[in-house]
Amino acid sequence: MKNLVCTTLMSLSLLAAAGYVNAAGDAAKGEKLVAACGACHGADGNSALAAFPKLAGLGEKYLLNQMIAIKNKSRNIAEMAGQLDALSEQDLANIAAFYSSKPMQLSGSKEQQVQLNSGLKVDGLALGAKVFRGGNHESGVPACTGCHSPTGLGNAPAGYPRLSGQHADYIAKQLREFRAGNRTTDGDSMVMRGVTQYMSDAEIDAVANFIAGLN
Question: Which domains does the chain have, with CATH numbers?
Fold first, then answer.
């Protein structure tokens, strides 16, 4: 179980679930399975380091689907190789229920300037808020609120994770992974890959920073 779900679930990223199963989890049983996970993700799923995503409050369905994707190798993360192989689907559901039951702590946004493709530097927080709430009509980027809610709390029953409060660096990394086609856990619908293909680096960094302080 060492490094369980290390560097993996976000969800920041973030991100549309593939919708594999709906197994019911037991948080109390899940708590007994995650002792070794605290080194990366914190005892309650609130990781201290941006390299490791916060798992607290991401949503039970999303967390379960991501762990199943890792176990069946449709989501490949070197640090997770073999880590979930000995766990049953019910074990994974219990872990998902435990982390989902915990409140996420806000990482917080920071003052930021980002450089647009034109070379113009703009207020990153203002750009992040604009793209998150309204998208970019000129380039075809849709608003994030449609799936992840105006407050960034996601849609747990639908499998869309909470984003608000997640580490900005982790969110930005996952958005770039979707944009490059390296992350495919948005399934056949390719929702996140379709969204991010139109996002500039400036928009990704700005949205990620805005989300980290959204509540």
Answer: 27-100 (1.10.760.10), 113-212 (1.10.760.10)
